[in-house]
Amino acid sequence: MNRRDFLRTTGASTLALAVADKPSFAADEDKTLRVALIGCGWYGKTDLFHLIQVAPVEVVGLCDVDKKMVEAAADLVSQRHRSKKRPPVYGDYRKLLSEQRPEIVLVGTPDHWHCLTMIEACKSGADVYVQKPISYDVVEGRAMVAAARKYKRTVQVGLERRSTPHILEARDRYINSGVLGKIAYVDIHSYYGSGRGFPAPSAPPPGLDWEMYVGPAAWRDYSEGIHPRRWRDCREFSNGQTGDLCVHLFDVTRMFLNLRWPKSISSIGGILMRSPNSNVNVHDTQTALFDYGDVKVVWNQRNWGMNPEPDYPWGVTYYGDKGTLKLSVWSYDYIPKDGGSPVHATALEEREKYPEDVQHKETELFAAPANRANMINFIESRRTGKRPVADIEEGYISTACCIMANLSMELGRGFRLEGDGSKITGDDEANRRLTRDYRSPWKHPTPDTV
Prior knowledge:
ten-stranded mixed sheet, globular, alpha/beta, single chain, six-stranded parallel sheet, disordered N terminus
């Protein structure tokens, strides 16, 4: 193969290197930021630890419905933040916000809990870093944007592909430069396998408040394995891989190509290969089309059969008239159309600069530099009043489109979107389903009620 590794030296993208090498704000003279975390699982702790690495942080509260998890997180945080004190822990985010009044709130809950926690944090006067997808349904997302604007809060979304060094490098070298030529077709895909079924429902373990865990979602009995990591296999709590994986690369595609709302969205798929008796109830197959007129963005998900992209099991391919660009969180490959040398580059890692990344075994080393860069941008945006790179409105557009792809698949028909994407043309049923039913006593927010 005539593929060569591209070394990030003087020929690397200036912008990508600027993001990767940006100095942190964790200088002693900087004001200590009062930070709280709601949702102390995998990425909640990851986000918090990366923020601690790049900003002067005092963690004033941790919240989780799992007492064992929040206590373990408090032990870890006491070793990392400035004071080395063990932060107070909570089981209810509302009590944390009212007692501690943090300046910054990180939301790392399962997806069905993003909306209410983010809105309440904005109301309390905090700026928010909320994980993607921002919401479970579309109207939740609209309400979140409205809350950020009403309370004049900076809200950054964990769509850190917008801050990933090698991804920005690929954009500058091959898309912005015109090297790829005209791009008319984009393939986003996931060929990861489907999750195994859960055991029969059982009583939740001591210390896990399952009633609060389910919260506003449709009720689902506890089964061992759902918590802490496999709630994404439960339709009650997530939008499946479309909400988890498509949203990342769809979002960065919109950024690359300056796209906002598609003209139409259509999708086919469902649970086609998994047993109908399985209690994993998210789809295992999907093809969705986000139609932007002269650009077609397609999402292909197949969680069974042979993986046709061994080096890019989760990735995106940009097809231009002068070449092809394959991109993932781990690497990129540029393949010119007519002669010339292919280029291969891998993700930047910073384990030597930040040895704590290795100590925290849940850290995704390939994603850590991007996560830190997203945090730095968040802190800068708070100071300057400028919109962050992954502003809540951008997160809303990307999330809503993925949610509507699932809705199209479930209803068996495509949609045309009106102007700003807030309404589906001529389809009352689809518009009603942009809002899910909240389980009592929780109340579904709208842009008018935040």
